[in-house]
Amino acid sequence: MTGPVTAQACANIAFIKYWGRRDHALRLPLNGSISMNLDATRTTTTVEFDPALDTDRVAIQGEPANELAARRVSRHLDRVREMAGITTRACVVSINGFPMGTGIASSASAFAALTLAACAAAGVSLDERALSILARLGSGSACRSIPAGFVEWHAGADSESSYAETIAPPEHWDLRDLIAIVQTEHKDVGSTAGQTLIDTSPFNAARIEAAERGLPVVRRAILECDFETFGEETELEALRMHAVALTTRPSVIYWQPETVRIMQAVRAWRDEGLPAYFTIDAGANVHVLCQGADADAVEERLRAIEGVRQILSNRPGPATHLIDEHLVWPAN
Ligand code: DP6
Predict the structure, then answer these.
(1) Closest approach atom of ligand 1 to CA 192
(2) How much distance in Å is there from the Cα of 272 to the middle of ligand 1?
(3) Which one of 2, 25, 64, 140 is least enclosed by Cβ atoms within 10 Å?
(4) How far, in Å, are 42, 98, 222, 224 from residue 233 at the CA level?
(5) Could you please report the per-residue DSSP string of 239-255?
(6) Backbone phi, then psi, for 214, in 5-degree steps?
(7) Is the pLDDT of residue 102 over 60?
(8) What is the spatial distance between Cα 12 and Cα 36, in angstroms, rounded to a whole number?
(9) Is-above-0.90 flag for pTM?
(10) Which ligand 1 atom sits nearest the alpha carbon of residue 33?
């Protein structure tokens, strides 16, 4: 046991989505996915194993976590404890630098940071691939926040082969993700629950097939910095994912009127010669993708749209890493 250890992880935005599992317990996805870490959208988590504790203590955003969240964290700590051969309980303090429950993948950065901090605090030394696999067991998309920059999650045949790795480092391409926040409340149907419904959509099989076909297209477009090919495929994939969500039983509509307003606006800007595309996760916020040279123009236009409350401007982000400043249990 080492005293407090703190890790920082970026959220990530998927261009080819993880939306459906073939094994729920192991979080093995139905298709591979590709994403980018978001440098301005991070979670910081401090973990300390403490023999004096008889239960895990978890604080998120300055408050003791609710039971559901605390249990999910404890289950993840159990995985680390098993690897370390210990039963010691831990104190976990976590802060997201962005609004939670908005569909900007807070579980990805949360479980990536928790995985690295808990392993380091328990003295478990894992390589990047093993960390990615472990993070995946906490939340699927978290495996993609472990490596740096542009990342591909290989669907894999089993747990050992289902992990994420960097396909290009952050400095490879000045791609921007401007997240237009239109809703900061918790969404009704989280991505874990939404994904259990996919079999009830008649379009799911078609999306999986299209996503698999999209993987090499997006991978190559990233490697060649081919923005048009990248954007076309990414935008279509988001619409395919939402086509599945819209047609499950019960059906899930993640969009708000502002969501559609931004989607339409982005397309109009393209027609006017401003290259930008959108993608959307399991929420109402819209991720507007553009290249560095166009970021100011896109941001200015986004600000002018009614209902856009805030814009989070992201560049490709680093790998999950340890930092020296530790968070302390919140004073009430
Ligand atoms: C829409 O990783 O949150 O963001 O494995 O149940 O924790 P769990 O699901 P989660 O799903 C993310 C879904 C998505 C698309 C993506 O990030 O690929």
Answers:
(1) 6
(2) 33
(3) 25
(4) 26, 27, 11, 14
(5) HHHHHHHHTSSS-----
(6) -75, -25
(7) no
(8) 5
(9) yes
(10) 18
